[in-house]
Each structure stands twice: as structure tokens, then as C-alpha cells.
Design brief:
Length: about 180
């Protein structure tokens, strides 16, 4: 009985990683492992890091998940590409971060968003299979960014970084497998 309880406790202690794995596996299971989903996922993830860095509040990274989703929906309703909506939101965050004197975290996270988001948008512009591989690699490589922030305990809460590691690796590599076998 106690080993079962300790196993359950260990699982509860790792809830962020489990959450990331479950969400990624669910997306793959329902066929949402396409390049659009991956491109949005990696760009939104980088946006969450930028929001937390620019505002100097790690918890903002969690709040930025539904925030980024709302920006994407608003952009689509306005008949604007989702990446343009996230780009405009990122510009606002960079201005806010610089005005509040958080130049280093704002510029570092802004550059990361530009790099990851740029690769994600490029993935949408090329051949669908190659784009899926590029989007998958971009998302999987974002896990390195997550690991760095998790180890340092900087910018975002460790729970966010841990959830992103599971999400990024499983969904990114799963998409690459789908591209190779499809």
C-alpha cells in the first residue's frame, strides 16, 4: 500500500511534466500533430516566456497561455494571420519590458521568440512534410530552452518549464515521426 501511495505522490510531485506529456500525447492521438499546431505551440510558448520576462513576474507565463490563445483567436476573427497577432502582442511586451527597465530579460526572450517564431512561420511556408519536420524540430529544440530555464530557476516558474519540456519533446518528436512515416 505504501509503495502505491509513494508512487502516486511521486506522480503528483511531477504534475507539470505529466501535464505536458498528456497534452502532447492527446494532440497526437486526435491528429492535431500538424505543422500549424506545432508552429502555434512553439510561438505561443516563446510568447509566454517573453511575457514573464518583460513583466518581471514568473507566474505570468502560466497566465500567458490563455492570453496567447485569445490573441490567436482575435487575430483569426480579424482575418489576420495568427503569427501577426502574436507578433503585435510581442511588440507590446517588448515596449513594456524596456519601459520598466527589464532590458536584458526582455531582449533575450524577445530574440528567442523571434528565432523560434521565425522558424515556425517558415515551416508553414515550405513543403508540408518538410514543414512538419521543421516545426517538430523547432518545438523539440525549444525543450533545451525550457531545460536551461528550469535549471536556473529564471524567468518562468520551474513548473512551467517542466510542463513545456514534456510537451515540446513529445509533440515535436511525434510530429517528426508522423512526417517520416506519412
Amino acid at each position: 500500500m505504501s509503495s502505491r501511495r509513494s508512487g502516486a505522490r511521486a506522480l503528483l510531485d511531477r504534475w507539470p511534466g505529466v501535464l505536458g506529456l498528456v497534452v502532447a500525447a492527446a494532440l497526437l492521438a486526435v491528429g492535431a500533430g500538424d505543422r500549424d499546431t506545432l508552429a502555434i505551440g512553439v510561438t505561443a510558448a516563446a510568447s509566454c516566456y517573453l511575457a514573464a520576462g518583460a513583466l518581471g513576474r514568473p507566474w505570468v507565463a502560466w497566465a500567458a497561455i490563455p492570453g496567447a490563445s485569445l490573441v490567436i483567436v482575435a487575430a483569426r476573427l480579424a482575418d489576420v494571420p495568427w503569427w501577426a497577432g502574436l507578433g503585435l502582442a510581442a511588440l507590446v511586451l517588448v515596449v513594456l519590458g524596456l519601459r520598466r527597465g527589464a532590458a536584458r530579460p526582455t531582449l533575450v526572450q524577445g530574440a528567442a521568440l523571434l528565432a523560434y517564431g521565425g522558424l515556425a512561420v517558415l515551416a508553414l511556408a515550405i513543403d508540408p512534410r518538410a514543414g512538419l519536420v521543421l516545426a517538430g524540430l523547432t518545438l523539440a529544440v525549444h525543450a533545451v530552452w525550457d531545460v536551461v530555464h528550469h535549471r536556473r530557476g529564471e524567468v518562468v516558474p520551474r513548473s512551467m518549464a517542466e510542463a513545456c519540456i514534456g510537451f515540446d519533446v513529445v509533440l515535436g518528436l511525434g510530429a517528426i515521426v508522423l512526417a517520416a512515416t506519412g
